Amino acid sequence: MRFFGVAVLLALVTSSVAAHDPITTTVTYAREVRAIVGTRCVTCHAPGGSAPMPLTTYEETRPWARAIKEQVLTRRMPKWQAARGFGAFANDPTLTPFEIALLVSWIDGGLPRDARSSVAGATAPVPTLSPAPPPLSRPRTPLTGNVLSITLPAGVAELSRPIGRRWVTGWDFQPGDPLITSATLSLADGTSLGNWVAGDRAVMLPPQTAIRISGRLRIALRRRAPADFEQIYTDRPSVLRLTTAVKPPAYRAWTLQGECASLAGTSGAQALAIRPALRPGGSVQIALDRIGAASTLVGWFRDFDPAYERTYWLRRPLDFGPDARLTSDGPCSAAVVLKARR
User: Fold this and answer.
1) Who contacts 200 (Cβ-Cβ below 8 Å, separation ≥6)?
2) Domains of the chain from N-terminus onward
3) Full-model pTM
4) What are phi and psi of 299, to 5 degrees?
5) DSSP string covering 287-312, please?
6) What phi and psi, each to the nearest 5 degrees, are found at residue 290?
7) How does 102-122 read in b/e, with b if 16+ C-beta sit within 10 Å?
8) DSSP letter at 129?
9) Fewest CB within a 10 Å sphere: which of 2, 62, 104, 264?
């Protein structure tokens, strides 16, 4: 009983100290942190979102501050398996070093909510992020062109349906279940069309570019295990939206699949994106070699998690002609999205 009493007292003291951390920073939630979290985190960390806990208000964010610090310093959040500084990707959601420094300063400096509680001593309003609506009604990136919507019933892991012949120019996926981590799109013969990973926005191919598909479309979903503290959420139908072109485009896109070291280019082709696959926890550097030219590092992919097998869209397309081939410093397979004039 004496030990229990001491433990309770220590817990109360620790809680009291944590609740009244001394303020030693001018970085505040209202002025800097709210904007960073709203841009980098709330895509997943919203009520009904794909992450276990929402971070849409100061009250929701504060209890997770120490965990946020650890996750951003080790770059485990946002979920992104490409090492920063090794390759450049248009869909990179990671924090900049300056954003990380602001978060760490705020957390180590006492978590001030606004300027009234900071060392600056000024007064300021206390804005909060508006809680996001459930996934299916959340505003999405607009898709242009003809849109084909495919509904996946609640709880389904895979769906196959006839798709006919179409030129696809983009896609978007709206999960009805926050446990869904990814959706992979492929044709009946195994040819990859593309994929979606939790947190992704809509994909739009470059102007005048489309992928030709025919036959049946297969949609495969992956889910994560629920966290112990996670609120129970009723699974609802998910929706895949494909945008299609009425006329054949000027540029045709397609996916080249195989072992990394066996993928070679073709006449007039450019590489738009790559989706590597490794063993769980694996790491690999993938480069593009061309005869008579210096090797170009495509990316360094680390701590691979099959549940988050992502497509990395290159900030600038790479020439992938007949003299080009991929190389890697370890075993891996890849799906490379190529583009060429028809």
Assistant:
1) 91, 173, 310
2) 2-132 (no CATH), 135-249 (2.60.120.310), 251-342 (2.60.120.230)
3) 0.84
4) 180, 160
5) EEEETTS--EEEEEE-S--GGG---E
6) -130, 145
7) bbbebbebbbbbbbebbebee
8) P
9) 2
